[in-house]
Each structure stands twice: as C-alpha cells, then as structure tokens.
Design goal:
It contains 25 helices and 21 strands. It is an alpha/beta fold. It has five domains: about 200 residues, Four Helix Bundle (Hemerythrin (Met), subunit A); about 60 residues; about 110 residues, 2-Layer Sandwich (Beta-Lactamase), CATH 3.30.450.20; about 160 residues, Reverse transcriptase/Diguanylate cyclase domain (Alpha-Beta Plaits, 2-Layer Sandwich); about 250 residues, TIM Barrel, CATH 3.20.20. The structure holds ligand C2E and magnesium ion (2 copies).
C-alpha cells in the first residue's frame, strides 16, 4: 500500500514538477520576451523623446531661432541612451538589421548635431544660416523618418513579441491549466485509485466491523490484493472467522448453556413439582449437614416452623440448637457412603404418633465423596400397625399353636416341650423326679351333650381353673382336647408327693359346679406315670399315663392309678387285639348267636337278640365284652355293626320263611354309639330293602348313655327309623344317666331292665329299681324287657313287674342259629 501511495504521490509530483518546469521554462522565455518588450518600450520612449526633441529642434529650425542647444543636448543624450539600449539589446528589435539602423540614425543624429552645430555656430550670412538650417532640418527630418521607420518596425516587432509573449502566456496558462487539470485528474484518479485501494477496503472493513459489531459474524472481506489491506483483510477475515467461530462457539456454548439453563430450570421446575408431588417427607442435606431442600410433607412431619430452617444444620433445625445426632442415618450415609434406613416413631401435630421408615441415599461428587444425602421417609404407620397386628396375630397363632383355645392352657405341643425339658433334666440329674398325670373327666360326654356344648365349655374352663389352683406354680397343665387334661408335676421330692396332689385336684374337680343356675357334679379319673429310664420320648409318658388312666376308669369314676409295667403289657395286648380285630373283619371271623326273648303273655319265643361273637382262630370264641369296647374306640364297630345288622336280618328272613306260620319273630340288634349317625338310616334302609323284615320285627337296641351322648342328633334319627317300622329299645336301662323328660320325647318302644337290677332280687328292697324302671316304662307307654333272668325267682319278679318280655339264661343262653332254630321248632313255652 505504501508503495502505491508513494508511487501515486510520486506520479503527481513528477507530473506536477514537469508541468511546473515546462511552465517555468515558458515563463522564462515569456519573461525574456517581456523584458525585450520593456526594453523596446524604453527604446521607444527614448525614441519618442528623441523624436520629440528632434521635432522640437525641427520646429525650432523651421520656426524661430530658439535655443537649440539644450534640445540638441537632449537629442544627443537620447541618442546615446538609445544607442546604449540598442547596444545591449541583442534579442529583440536590436537585431543586427535594427542595429544598423540605429547606427544609421546615430550617424544621422551626429550629422544632425553637426548640422545644428554648424547652424548654431554659423556666423556667416543669413543664407548660409538658412542653408545650414535647412540642411539641419533635412537631416532632422530624415532622422525623424528613420526614427519613425524604426518606430514602426519596433512597434511591429513589439507586437510580434507581445503576441508571442501573450501566446506563450496563454500556453503557460494552458500548461498550468493542463498541469493542474491533469494533476487534479491524476490526483482524482489516484484519489479514486487510493480510494479503491484504501477507502474501499477500509470501508469494507468498517462495514465488516460494523456488521460484526451488529452481530453479523458471517463476514468475509473480499479484498485480495497484496497490499497491507489485503493482508489486513486476510487477517480481518481470519479474525472474523475466529470471531465467528468464537461467536459460534460462544453461541453454541450459550445455546448449550441456555439449554442447560433451560434444562436446569426445567429440571428445577420438575424437581419442584416432583418435590411438591411427593407426599412422603423428602429432603436434601449437604455435606455441612445443612438442610437445603425439604418438601411440605417433610416440613409437616418434622414440625418445622418458620422459614429459616432451610440452610440450617439439620439437627439444629429438627431438634433445636446444640443438638447432636445419635445414630442418625444421614450421618451414617455420609460416613459409610451407603444407603441407610431406619424406622422412627414421630409425634406429629395433634399428638398423633406416626411410624416413618427413613431412607438415606448418598449423592457422590466427581471425586467420589458424598456431597449430599437425600433423605426420604415413608409413613409406615399402617404397615407398622399391620405388622404389630400381624405380630400380635403371629404371637396369637404361636400361642394358639401351643395353647388350647378354650382354656388357654398349654396344648400337646407345648406340654411335650416342657416334658422334654423335664426328661433332659432327669437324664442329667439322678435325683430329679417328675410325674405325668393323665386326667379324664368322667362322663363328660354325657354331661356335655345333655347340657349343651357351650355349657360344656364353661365347665371345661372352670375345670381348668380348678386344676391350676390345685397344682404348684411350676407344674404344667395342658389340655389335649375334649375332657383330657395332662399335668406335669415337676421336681417332685418323692413319688408319694404326687398322690396328695392328685387327690387334691380330684377333690377340687369333684366339688359341684354351678353352671347356669344348675349344680353339676363330676369327677376325674387320673393316670399317673413317673419318670422312668425306659421312657425315651414324651409320648411314652403320655401313653403310660393314659394306660393308667384307662385302668382308673375301669375302676369306676374319680379314681387314680399309677402306671406299672403290667398295665403296659395289657395295653399292648389291647393293641394286639385291635390288630386281630382288623384282621377278623377282613377274614369275616364274626359269628352271631341268638338269645331268645320270651313273650310273658304267651310264654313262647317271640324273638331273638343277635349277639356277636368272634371266632378267633387261636383263642376260639371270644365274647363281645372283650372286643366291643375296643371296636368302639377304634371305630371298627362300624364295620362289625354293619355285618351284624345284615346277618341278623338275613337270619330273620330265613326263619321267617321257615316258620311262616308263626307270628313274625323280632330280631334285636345292638347298636353302638359310634353307629348312631344318620348313615345308620341308610344302612337300615338298605338292609330292610334287601330282607324285607315284617314291620316292627327289626329292633334296634341302644343304651340310654348313647341317647344322652347324642341328644341332638338322636331324635330325628330315631324318628326316621320309626318311620321305617323299626322298633327302638333302650338297653341296660338304669345303668346310665338319662333325662326322663328327654326320654319322654323319644319314640321308644321298650326299656330293657339291666340284668344287674334283676340280679338284685335276692337282697332286701332289691327289686325297687327294677320295679321303678318297669313302672316308668309303662308310665311312658313303653314295654319292658327284663334281661339276665337266670332264676325262677327272678322270673317271678319279672312277672310281678308285668314285664312284657323276658330274656335270660333261665330260658336260654345265646345260641347258634341252628340251635335257635331247633328251639323254635321245639316251641317250648315258659309258663306264663
Ligand atoms: P347286652 O346287649 O345287654 O346283651 C345281653 C348280654 O347279657 C349278653 O352277653 C348275654 O349273653 C348276657 N346275658 C343274657 N342273659 C343272661 C343271664 O341270664 N345271665 C348272664 N350272666 N348274662 C346274660 P354278651 O353276649 O356277652 O354280650 C354282652 C354285651 O355285648 C351285650 O350286652 C351288648 O351290649 C354287647 N353286644 C353283644 N353283641 C353285640 C353286637 O352285635 N353289637 C353291639 N354293639 N354290642 C353287642
Ligand atoms: Mg342288648
Ligand atoms: Mg343288655
């Protein structure tokens, strides 16, 4: 650029200098011309003066005689000057031709002077003077002529020179003008060029700068010359690009920042809304333990008041000044860098207590340190309550699983646990002694069924209370269901110590109960088993005590028995018997014997009682007394009873066909309490359908205890049986417990006086009960069957009691079917 400017200025200077030089040169020439003109004017002046003087002289010469002398001096003087002027003038009209003229004029002047001097100085006559004068005048005229000619020529020359000078001046003016115009033009061009070179890029740069200033960074200056501007433009473009890049980067960063900020704002808003939408307490705590964020639920549950809690130390905000944290999960999370949790019971406004489950989560910074801890709490009150309820329920379940629900006494499981402990101690401690008491409430079933189960429950509760009263605090009483209680007498000093305890509790049980305004009497049978080396399991003690209790029961009500080995052997025999019994059912080893029943009206056999026997392969014929009880206990009686009913009806059918002429024989079948269920109706229905016995010929014998024990179900059952033309007799009447009012409601056809009452006839007032039974039966419109009549005396009594039927060894023992058939054929009659 510098070069361009320099060259431009140099060009202007050169041009200008050239113009100036030309002008100067022209001016010099012109000046010289002008000087010549001036000189020529001076010559002209001199000439004019010469002319004037010459003319004056001439005038004088032609007119009067005047002092010519002074004029001639002038003329001469002028001539000298003229000559001098002419002498110095070499360039103008003093050209060699003119000089010659001047010399000529000078010579003429000299001649004129001489002529004049002659005239002046002539003293001759007047003629001569006139002649001189004339000569002088002629010379003078010539001088004038010459001068005039010279003047003309000089004028012409001056005009030429003047014209030349003025032309030159014009040329100079023109040159100057041209120079100026050209210089101006060049300057303009240069200016334009420079403008192009400087202003345009500058302007462009300025515009570009302005655009950049106004934010348009997409600017690229197009200047590509090799000047500084080009370089500047290049740098500017680079700078612009950098600015643009920088701006774009800034823009990007700003956009990113804006995005980030927006995201932050969004996130903040989201966080806020999230915070607000979280119904559970939520807060953020920084590493200085300052509460930096907390939602409303947190504020509410933590009962934070005012507005300045934010930013305060969380313990201080929560618990007041100078409080310290103990086992705080926030601190734990900060320390351990792990999520922590704990449950906390809080009292909220209104004094309500709520359970919170507090979770803390560490938030890590980039260095891996914990910068914040987020605390989130959940109201787990419901769950806690549920948990507590569940826990209580579980405890209850556990309690229930270990205790009897009615009495709250330990049950079998818990009792066994205690017993195991006692056994373990017994193994470790030589002199340690304990006893297991198995207690069964006598006749409880009757009592329970007659009074109702709820009353039975009341009675059981009262019994358990009395049992608790009767033993020592460290003894354990358990109820095993029903009316079975088991007691662990722990840490006895001696075996004998168990006896008074047993008697004491039996005495307590025997005390009358007051239930619903009724006085109830009961008793307890107790079996006692002491700790023994050969008892390895708790069950063994239970077994032994149970066996002993069984024996006690066998002795009647309210007794106790201490277990011994024989009892066990006997129990084993029972087990063996049970096994055999099962086998007998399978192998059909049962037989029926038929004991005739005599009608007291006719003295003839009117029917039979079917009595079961077991034809044991080894032991021979076994009496029902030996196995019926066990069959009832084991439930096998159901199968046996079904067989008996079927067989009896089958036999009855045979005899009916064989002895068609006789009035239909009755067949009495003993029914066990275990059979006294609705399916008995089904069974009877099936059998009667099969063998079609004569109406009323099938008799079912049930004991009064069975009636009482199944008081609820028995009435509809008996009613249905009655509808099927089946007679109902009460067996062994008088040996059990019966409610007479209840008996009255039942559809009973006859009472069988138990043989024990018939047997008493030999003793004093022995017939009282038999008589009472007969009277009662008759009073209730029932018939009376006297069983177990073995003697004539007893028969006489039966007669006197107006019993309708009699049965006993006196007439016949139970017979096999064939013998019974023979008896029928024989048709032997008892004298009425
Ligand atoms: P039960 O029903 O009272 O039967 C009468 C029992 O008295 C029979 O004994 C019979 O042989 C016996 N007996 C009859 N007359 C006399 C007598 O003059 N003197 C003596 N000492 N005894 C007499 P058995 O057959 O041993 O039956 C005993 C009990 O076994 C029956 O008493 C009855 O309760 C039960 N039983 C017998 N067979 C069956 C049966 O098929 N099913 C059920 N459930 N029980 C039966
Ligand atoms: Mg009977
Ligand atoms: Mg009987």
């Amino acid at each position: 650029m510098n070069r361009k400017v320099f060259l431009s200025l140099l060009a202007i200077l050169i041009f200008y200098t050239a113009g100036a030089l030309v002008s100067v040169r022209y001016l010099t020439d012109t000046t010289r011309e002008l000087n010549r003109i001036i000189k020529m004017h001076e010559v002209e002046e001199l000439r004019k003066s010469l002319v004037i003087n010459v003319q004056a002289v001439q005038n004088d010469l032609y007119t009067v005689n005047t002092p010519l002398t002074s004029n001639i001096d002038f003329i001469v003087d002028n001539m000298i000057k003229l000559e001098k002027s002419a002498g110095v003038c070499t360039t103008c009209h003093h050209a060699p031709g003119m000089k010659e003229r001047l010399i000529d004029i000078q010579n003429r002047i000299d001649e004129y002077g001489d002529a004049l001097s002659y005239y002046l100085t002539g003293s001759a006559n007047s003629e001569r003077i006139i002649m001189l004068r004339k000569s002088a005048a002629e010379i003078g005229d010539r001088v004038l002529l010459l001068t005039s000619d010279m003047s003309h020529k000089a004028s012409a020359k001056i005009d030429t020179i003047t014209n030349s000078a003025s032309r030159r001046l014009k040329e100079i003016r023109m040159i100057i003008l041209i120079t100026l115009v050209t210089t101006f033009s060049i300057s303009v061009v240069i200016a334009f060029r420079l403008k192009g070179f400087i202003v345009r890029p500058v302007k462009e740069l300025v515009n570009a700068t302005r655009r950049i200033t106004s934010g348009d960074y997409d600017v690229n200056v197009s200047c590509k010359d090799r000047t500084e501007f080009g370089e500047l433009a290049k740098h500017f473009n680079t700078m612009s690009a950098s600015i643009k890049e920088g701006y774009e980067k800034i823009n990007r960063e700003m956009a990113f920042r804006k995005q980030t900020e927006e995201a932050l704002v969004k996130s903040e808003r989201f966080l806020n809304s999230m915070f607000d939408s979280i119904h559970d307490p939520f807060c953020i705590i920084d590493s200085e333990y300052r509460l930096i964020r907390a939602n409303e639920a947190y504020v509410a549950t933590r009962r934070l008041t005012g507005t300045d809690f934010m930013g305060r130390h969380c313990y201080e905000a929560l618990h007041g000044r100078n409080s310290v944290c103990g086992g705080c999960v926030v601190e734990k999370s900060f320390r351990s860098k792990d999520p922590c949790a704990k449950e906390k019971l809080l009292t909220v406004d209104g004094g309500t207590k709520i359970w919170l489950e507090i979770y803390t989560y560490p938030v890590f910074n980039k260095d891996g340190g914990v910068s914040h801890v987020i605390e989130y709490s959940r109201d787990i009150s419901d769950r806690k309550h549920t948990e507590e309820a569940r826990k209580a329920a579980e405890e209850q379940i556990i309690f229930n699983s270990l205790h009897d629900s009615l009495t709250g006494l330990p049950n079998r499981v818990l009792f066994f646990d205690h017993l195991r402990h006692a056994m373990d101690r017994g193994k470790r401690q030589e002199d340690y002694l304990f006893a297991v008491l198995f207690l069964d409430i006598d006749r409880f079933k009757v009592f329970n069924d007659s009074l109702g189960h709820s009353m039975g429950d009341v009675a059981l509760t009262e019994i358990s209370r009395r049992l608790k009263e009767s033993v020592r605090s460290h003894d354990v009483i358990a109820r095993f269901g029903g009316d079975e209680f088991v007691i662990l007498l722990d840490n006895l000093k001696s075996r004998e110590e168990a006896v008074p305890v047993t008697e004491h509790l039996q005495g307590n049980i025997a005390r009358p109960f007051e239930i619903s305004g009724r006085e109830i009497f009961t008793s307890a049978s107790v079996g006692i088993a002491f700790c023994a080396r050969d008892c390895e399991k708790p069950e063994h003690y239970l077994r032994d005590a149970d066996i002993a209790m069984y024996y006690a029961k066998g002795r009647g009500h309210g007794h106790y028995e201490i277990f011994n080995k024989k009892m066990y052997a006997s129990a084993l025999a029972r087990v063996q018997l049970e096994t055999d019994l099962r086998q007998a059912i399978k192998l059909n080893e049962f037989r029926l014997h038929y004991q005739p029943i005599i009608s007291m009206e006719t003295g003839a056999v009117c029917g039979f009682e079917a009595l079961v026997r077991w034809q044991h392969p080894e032991r021979g014929l076994i009496s029902p007394a030996e196995f019926i009880g066990l069959a009832e206990e084991t439930g096998l009686i159901i199968h046996i009873g079904e067989w008996v009913l079927n067989e009896a009806c089958r036999q009855m059918r045979i005899w009916r066909e064989k002895f068609a002429g006789r009035p239909p024989l009755t067949m009495s079948v003993n029914i066990s309490s275990r059979q006294l269920f609705p399916n008995l109706v089904t069974l009877v229905g099936r059998v009667t359908e099969q063998y079609a016995p004569a109406p009323g010929s099938l008799v079912l014998e049930i004991t009064e205890s069975m009636l009482m024990e199944n008081a609820v179900t028995v009435l509809p059952l008996l009613s249905k049986l009655k509808e099927m033309q089946v007679q109902i007799h009460i067996d062994d009447f008088g040996t059990g417990y019966s409610s007479l009012s209840y008996l009255h409601q039942l559809p009973i056809d006859a009472l069988k006086i138990d043989r024990s009452f018939i047997r008493m006839t030999g003793k004093k007032d022995n017939h009282v009960i038999a008589r009472a039974v007969a009277t009662l039966a008759h009073g209730l419109n029932m018939e009376v069957v006297a069983e177990g009549v073995e003697t004539e005396e007893q028969l006489a009594l039966v007669k006197s009691l107006k019993c309708e039927y009699v049965q006993g060894f006196l007439i016949s023992k139970p017979l096999e079917a064939g013998a019974a058939e023979a008896l029928l054929r024989e048709d032997r009659r008892v004298p009425a």
